[in-house]
Amino acid sequence: NAGVTQTPKFRILKIGQSMTLQCTQDMNHNYMYWYRQDPGMGLKLIYYSVGAGITDKGEVPNGYNVSRSTTEDFPLRLELAAPSQTSVYFCAEGAGDEQFFGPGTRLTVL
Amino acid sequence: AQSVAQPEDQVNVAEGNPLTVKCTYSVSGNPYLFWYVQYPNRGLQFLLKYITGDNLVKGSYGFEAEFNKSQTSFHLKKPSALVSDSALYFCAVRDYRRGNNRLAFGKGNQVVVIP
Question: What is the number of alpha carbons within 13 Å of residue A68 lying toward its C-beta?
Answer without folding.
Answer: 22
